[in-house]
Specification:
There is one protein chain. By secondary structure, the chain is an alpha/beta fold. A hairpin with a 2-residue loop joins strand 2 and strand 3. It has three domains: 96 residues, no CATH class; 194 residues, Rossmann fold (3-Layer(aba) Sandwich), CATH 3.40.50; 33 residues. The longest helix is centred in the C-terminal third of the chain and has 29 residues. It contains 15 helices and eleven strands.
């Protein structure tokens, strides 16, 4: 019995040491010095052990970092500040990113309905330096339009669920002209209400293709969007962007409050040469948006031009077509008419195989739940 007690005490001591070190490092962008680790309770021999085992990452002489900590542009300043024990001097220009992140900590908030994504979202924010995220566990759609306007925000970034449906009680929170149980439409309405009172209100919303071509209740919602907000850009994402979670083609709607839409720019994000779609193992990377970022034209969006990927359509033309936003790139020929039959057949077989895998996975889950 005495051996078991000593063992449990040793485990508890190690866990307490790890907890104290993590608390220290989390406040320093994941960094800590050898002297700080020793003050927590790690001997120099123990420090070497943790480095050798990969528990810590050695950054420089007597400077370590928690492994897997996401990198940031201001890491170099954080390293010097920690290494100098807070005596480092940082210029106004160089400290701006850190200052902006500090402002973000107090203003970022959001909702998540399901428990596991809620926990993952909290952890993701903590790992990116947002140490007190204001994330509410609940349904963002269960608020009246008046409540959403009253609790408005300046910026909304969201990727609502695709193909989901809400209960009849949820759609009762929305105006009768726009009531539907489809989650994507209700989220779009909710986002509009959230930014409508902000002088700098703007949003970026990921939506499936169905939102672009729907002319029923969706047509009414898109009319509201384009007459009350400036839908200035639609970025059309390539196939497989959200694979394997969905194979549905997706888009990003960018809109601001303040004036009705006059023109909509469409940007078709290209696949890398030789690729037919993105996959889980070969996903879309941030660097691939460099061409779109260069075309964007800064905050004023004043240098945009037609290109192989970009074209502009007037709001009047879109309204005349029932607010259909599922518009093809006029600079690109009809792929089906110009691609070799063998290539089309091979792509069709690949798609069918992907569908079969998903169906088999669904069947397995249904049997497990039975």
């Amino acid at each position: 019995m005495s051996i078991s007690i000593r063992y449990n005490c040793a485990v508890t001591d190690r866990l307490d040491l790890r907890r104290r070190l993590n608390e220290l490092a989390f406040g320093q962008a994941g960094y800590f010095t050898a002297s700080q680790a020793k003050a927590v309770g790690y001997t120099y021999q123990a420090q070497k052990y943790h480095v050798d085992r990969g528990n810590w990452s050695r950054i420089d002489r007597a400077l370590f970092r928690l492994p897997g900590w996401p990198s940031a542009a201001e890491d170099v300043y954080a390293r010097w500040w920690v290494w100098s024990e807070g005596l480092g001097v940082i210029s106004h220009e160089s400290q701006q990113p850190a200052h902006q992140r500090a402002r973000l900590r107090g203003t970022l908030r959001g909702f998540e309905k399901k428990p596991m994504p809620f926990l993952l979202g909290q952890m993701n924010l903590l790992l990116h330096g947002v140490d007190d995220p204001k994330i509410t566990r609940g349904n963002a759609l269960t608020f009246s339009a008046a409540d959403q306007r009253r609790d408005g925000v300046d910026v909304v970034l969201t990727n609502p669920p695709f193909g989901g449906e809400e209960s009849a009680s949820v759609k009762g929170y929305f105006q009768s002209d726009y009531r539907t149980t489809e989650t994507s439409w209700l989220f779009l309405l909710s986002v509009m209400e959230r930014i409508t009172k902000s002088r700098s209100g703007r949003a970026a919303v990921v939506v499936p293709n169905g939102v672009l071509f729907d002319k029923g209740i969706g047509g009414k919602i898109k009319k509201k969007l384009m007459t009350e907000f400036d839908l200035h850009t639609v970025v059309r994402l390539p196939n497989g962007t959200f694979s394997p979670y969905t194979l549905i083609p997706t888009n990003i709607l960018f809109f601001d409050r303040g004036r009705p839409t006059e023109d909509v720019w469409f940007y078709e994000h290209p696949l890398p040469e030789g690729r037919k779609n993105y996959t889980k193992t070969k996903p879309l990377r941030y660097e691939e948006f460099a061409e779109c970022e260069a075309w964007w034209g800064g905050t004023a969006r004043d240098s945009r031009v037609d290109s192989a990927q970009a074209w502009k359509v007037s709001a009047d033309d879109i309204a005349a077509d029932g607010y259909n936003l599922d518009l093809q790139n006029p600079h690109r020929p009809d792929d089906l008419a110009h691609r070799p039959p063998a290539e089309l057949l091979a792509e069709l077989i690949d798609t069918e195989q992907e569908i079969l895998v998903l169906l088999e996975k669904l069947q397995t889950e249904m049997v497990a739940d039975a």
